[in-house]
Amino acid sequence: MRYDTLKILLVDDNQHARILVTEILRSIGVQHVFEAADGSAGLQQLREHQIDIIFTDLSMQPMDGIEFVRRLRNAPDSPNQMAPVIMVTGHFTLARVSAARDAGVNEFLAKPLTARGVIERLQRVIEHPRPFVRTAGYFGPDRRRRDDPEYRGPMRRKTDAAGRPAPTQEI
Predict the structure, then answer these.
(1) Among residues 159, 128, 166, which one has the least CA distance to residue 145?
(2) Alpha carbon of 149 to those of 22, 146, 152, 153: distances in Å?
(3) Residue 134 forms beta bridges with which residues?
(4) For residue 141, which of 106, 116, 98, 96 has the smallest C-alpha distance?
């Protein structure tokens, strides 16, 4: 992987966290790192630069990471709706993780940050990108983590591809 060509945006209100992630990225050869202290500034950076991958903190003021990702994915004037987003947080509650996932986050990274964690998430969004889906209430990466080739039952959706109710399996 040639990391030197990547353009990465860090959106975090904690300057020390931005410095830590920048140093980790530079250690693997990333040369283009852009920073923003909140979601609004992050959206502005996206308008000014062609960003490949975004790391954003969940808890920021005035615009938090979830709202930032919602606007990135859904605003009509969004500069890069399909940029992979890695959500960084020390607040891993099921409700917040679900809200971030439903906003369109690709990956999660828990604090305290480690070089291994940053590099693994970066590699995951590059080497195993998830397809994007659009529904009436969601636009973002497919929330299913894997396709099970052994699964032989009915479709795992409420409706099939034609919009009809999915068949139920008889037992």
Answers:
(1) 128
(2) 39, 9, 8, 11
(3) 139
(4) 106
Whole-structure pTM value = 0.84
Integer Cα distance of 152 and 83 in angstroms: 33
Domain 3-141 is in which class? alpha beta
With a cut of 70, list the residues of the chain below it in pLDDT. Answer: 145-171
Please choose, from the candidates 42, 34, 84, 45, the residue with its C-alpha nearest in 3D space to the C-alpha of residue 63.
42
Residues β-bridged to residue 42: none
Beta-carbon count within 10 A of 85 CB: 26
Q: In what order do the strands lie in the sheet with 85-89?
A: 32-36, 7-11, 53-57, 85-89, 107-110
Cβ atoms of residues 104 and 85 within 8 Å? yes
Q: Each residue of 53-80: b (16+ CB within 10 Å) or e?
A: bbbbbbebeebbbbbbbbbbbeeeebbb
The pLDDT assigned to 97 comes to 87
Distance CA 85, CA 74 (A): 14
Q: Tell me how crowded residue 139 is: count the other CB atoms within 10 A of its CB.
A: 18
User: Domain map of the chain by residue range?
Assistant: 3-141
pLDDT of residue 1: 76
